Amino acid sequence: MTDDATSIERSFKRDLLAALPNLRAFAVSLTGRHHVADDLVQDTIMKAWAKQDHFEPGTNMKAWLFTILRNEFYSQMRKRGREVSDSDGFFTAQLSTHPQQYGSLDLQDFKKALDQLPSDQREAIILVGASGFAYEEAAEICGCAVGTIKSRINRARNKLQEILGVTGEGDYGPDAHSSAVTKRAFAV
Amino acid sequence: MADSQPGIATQLRQLYQSVQDEAIPDRFLSLLEKLDQAEQQADQALRIKDSAQ
Fold it and tell me: Residue B24 carries which DSSP code?
């Protein structure tokens, strides 16, 4: 019994470690700042560790961790007030202070564009377009319907294309047909 | 020229990947180590208590 429990603990720690780089990248994209992101990741590790009995081995550890981190982020934001939407100028200033943290110059432009998105659209396009989640998983992480995720991604992509002046790539995301459907279903 | 730029999906992945490729900060590794040790000590204390009874 004890050996079983220990080996589950081991694999919990190992899986948590394996998910950390991805989790941290998500935290950076949510907060826009490395040091804030790392504090958030630290809080998430503590929470996850304390709740590890609630985690069912064999289920999706990555999605579980992302859900904890996201909940933690929004609950901290609510406590601090309206910081969530106060992104623009601040993130841009951060970019010029630490340009090396955000890759090449092109990527800095992209980062600025990304920061201009509403946070719900930004997290949707990141979860599916970069973190590697399916629409269904992203919906679960964000606690919303799959159609909502699809429509947020659509709006995010359109807005990014508009800001960056590029044409659509069409290599991921909902196709034109399903986007029309989600728009109809979710435009209230 | 817009055509020569990588598309949105590619840039998004590149940006994300640039953070993912960074080394895991030491603070997380030592935090996990501490959590692990604390748990093992608690387990051990429990076992000693069990065998004493």
Answer: P
| B46 token code pair | 């429990």
Read off the pLDDT of residues B1-52 as tens digits, 9 standing for 90 and up: 444 457 899 999 999 999 999 999 999 999 999 998 888 888 888 888 888 7
ipTM: 0.80
Domain, as residue range, for A151 = 120-188
Whether B41 contacts chain A with CB within 8 A: no
DSSP letter assigned to residue B2: G
pLDDT in tens, A29-54: 998 888 999 999 999 999 999 999 88
DSSP-based three-state secondary structure for A44 = helix
A97 inside domain: no
Distance, in angstroms, between B1 CA and closest chain A CA?
A: 9
The answer as to whether A98 is a domain residue is no
First vs last C-alpha separation in chain B: 78
| pLDDT tens for each residue of A46-94 | 999 999 988 888 788 999 999 999 999 999 988 887 554 444 444 444 4
The Cα–Cα gap between B20 and A172 comes to 21
- Tokens encoding A81: 């007030």
- The pair of structure tokens assigned to A7 is 């080996």
Q: How far is A77 from chain B (nearest CA, A)?
A: 22
Query: Taking a C-beta distance cutoff of 8 angstroms, is the pair A132, A26 a contact?
Result: no
> Which of A86, A105, A132 is the C-terminal boundary of a domain?
A86
Tokens of A96: 């010029």
